[in-house]
């Protein structure tokens, strides 16, 4: 019997991608504009797709900055695989949720699946900010002596595939959906027996389910705890040994999941010290105006939350660049706080930020997404369009970290794609790098630059491109004259045989001269 996704799950997946994007790592795929424009037709076609016969395409696997000097493995899925993966997990989302501890226990706190029909996949009021506030209230009404703080080392990329298989088999009887999810993950992680796709919401739900056994073991042993993704807090009274509690969790993760705790981030705090720790994350009394304003921004870095106008007004009274300079001078960087500062700079549109970025670009590379989004928000015509900034960006693309880290590279190229900086055909050739993410951006930038001759010369080589590049070529080629473009799309359409290819060709054929609008329609500024 064929395995098919329900129209409801496909529709919710599309709505989620249109509202929140396909990833929190890379710039959103421009194809997202297609999802919104042809939603009903996409749902109709994909609801007829037999997943048993569908062979997922390979994803792009690369690295992205994780810390000051660290990196993590990340994945960019094609838009079709992103829809199907998200819809498949939505299909079994309620079943996965049943594996977790009851929601009113506040153990596993983050990314609780919501069965309500909404563009969000998650229960409201379970943000990181809400987690901090819950801990403070929980400690205040109990009599704990110590709190253990720890997290899992390289959580997403160390999840064993056989554990995902077991979770899916236990969670639901929908064997066809299970088989498809396993096939897709195998295809993406073909070289490894561990790790799941990093960057999208579907993986978050799977990762949460993986820790359900360890959570239940803690609860059954009588430990009071809470967890936000891979961050654990164990609350202990005078009769409980901190070492024993930590050893119990470490053993559960090692034997059941093949995971280990991060020794460098493991701390044992007396309850008074823990309260001070929470206060430092909420409001620092020694600098209350600054800390409270920045704290109010932290929640905006998580799904579905927006800073209020009142919060924005508070920020305008602060010298955020001075605060940022101070944070960067610290030996240990507070990544959450620095990201909040960047968001504050975006909201206040501080034109002096561009000069700061030019002088500190090397140091800011781990925050390259935040840097690009800030520059994009600055008013058009402001000094940030300076030659000094353009030279700094090009220099990074030629010889800096961007020359070897595709994720950094593609974010820097966003500045040209968004029109924040200009680059001509010769400039594109100078920064050229033969890898898929860069090629995609180069093709789209050429389209924005109306490089008609390039697309005319290369139309005959279209079939040599990979799937990611074909979509970008089609979008970039919208700079061709209307009749020429429509005729060429009609000629290549018969050779594009994957699901949605025909719909995409029909849609893009009607979009000559509208590339800039399509870029805006992907909703990138919701980051």
From TrEMBL:
Domain spans labelled Reverse transcriptase: 73-282
Molecular function terms, GO-annotated: RNA-directed DNA polymerase activity
Keyword terms, alphabetized: Nucleotidyltransferase, RNA-directed DNA polymerase, Transferase
InterPro entries in the record: GrpII_Intron_Splice-Mob/Def (IPR051083), RT_dom (IPR000477)
Coiled-coil ranges (or none): none
Pfam families named among the record's database cross-references: RVT_1 (PF00078)
Keyword Transferase: yes
Similarity field: Belongs to the bacterial reverse transcriptase family.
Name by which UniProt lists this protein: Reverse transcriptase (RNA-dependent DNA polymerase)
Lineage start: Bacteria, Pseudomonadati, Pseudomonadota, Alphaproteobacteria, Hyphomicrobiales
């Amino acid at each position: 019997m064929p395995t098919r996704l329900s129209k409801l799950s496909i529709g919710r997946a599309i709505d989620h991608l249109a509202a929140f994007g396909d990833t929190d790592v890379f710039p959103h795929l421009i194809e997202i504009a297609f999802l919104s424009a042809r939603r009903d037709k996409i749902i109709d076609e994909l609801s007829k797709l037999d997943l048993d016969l569908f062979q997922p395409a390979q994803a792009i696997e690369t690295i992205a900055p994780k810390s000051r000097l660290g990196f993590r493995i990340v994945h960019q899925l094609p838009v079709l695989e992103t829809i199907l993966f998200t819809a498949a997990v939505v299909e079994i989302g309620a079943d996965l949720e049943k594996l977790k501890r009851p929601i009113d226990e506040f153990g596993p706190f983050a990314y609780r699946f919501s069965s309500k029909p909404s563009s969000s996949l998650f229960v409201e009021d379970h943000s990181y900010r809400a987690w901090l506030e819950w801990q403070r209230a929980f400690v205040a009404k109990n009599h704990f002596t110590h709190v253990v703080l720890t997290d899992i080392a390289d959580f997403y990329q160390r999840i064993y595939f056989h554990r995902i298989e077991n979770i899916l088999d236990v969670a639901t009887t929908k064997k066809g959906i299970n088989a498809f999810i396993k096939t897709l993950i195998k295809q993406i992680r073909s070289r490894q027996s561990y790790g799941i796709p990093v960057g999208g919401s579907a993986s978050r739900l799977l990762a949460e389910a993986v820790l359900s056994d360890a959570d239940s073991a803690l609860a059954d042993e009588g430990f009071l705890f809470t967890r936000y993704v891979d961050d654990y807090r164990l609350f202990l009274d005078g009769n409980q040994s901190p070492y024993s509690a930590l050893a119990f969790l470490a053993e559960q993760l090692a034997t059941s999941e093949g995971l280990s705790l991060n020794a460098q981030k493991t701390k044992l705090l007396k309850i008074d010290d823990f309260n001070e720790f929470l206060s430092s994350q909420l409001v620092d009394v020694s600098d209350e105006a600054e800390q409270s304003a920045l704290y109010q921004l932290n929640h905006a870095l998580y799904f579905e939350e927006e800073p209020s106008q009142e919060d924005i007004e508070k920020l305008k009274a602060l010298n955020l660049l001075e605060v940022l300079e101070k944070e960067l001078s610290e030996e240990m960087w507070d990544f959450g706080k620095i990201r909040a500062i960047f968001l504050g700079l975006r909201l206040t549109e501080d034109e002096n930020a561009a000069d700061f970025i030019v002088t500190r670009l090397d140091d800011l590379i781990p925050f390259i997404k935040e840097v690009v989004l800030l520059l994009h928000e600055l008013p058009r015509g402001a000094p940030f369009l300076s030659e000094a900034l353009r030279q700094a960006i090009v220099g990074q693309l030629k010889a800096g970290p961007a020359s070897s880290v595709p994720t950094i590279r593609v974010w820097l190229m966003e500045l040209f794609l968004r029109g924040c900086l200009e680059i001509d055909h010769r400039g594109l050739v100078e920064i050229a790098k033969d890898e898929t993410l860069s090629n995609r951006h180069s093709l789209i930038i050429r389209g924005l630059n109306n490089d008609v001759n390039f697309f005319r010369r290369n139309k005959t080589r279209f079939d040599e491109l990979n799937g990611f590049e074909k979509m970008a070529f089609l979008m970039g080629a919208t700079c061709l004259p209307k009749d020429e473009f429509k005729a060429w799309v009609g000629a290549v359409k018969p050779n594009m045989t994957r699901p949605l290819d025909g719909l995409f060709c029909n849609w893009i054929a009607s979009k000559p001269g509208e590339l800039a609008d399509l870029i805006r329609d992907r909703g990138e500024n919701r980051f």
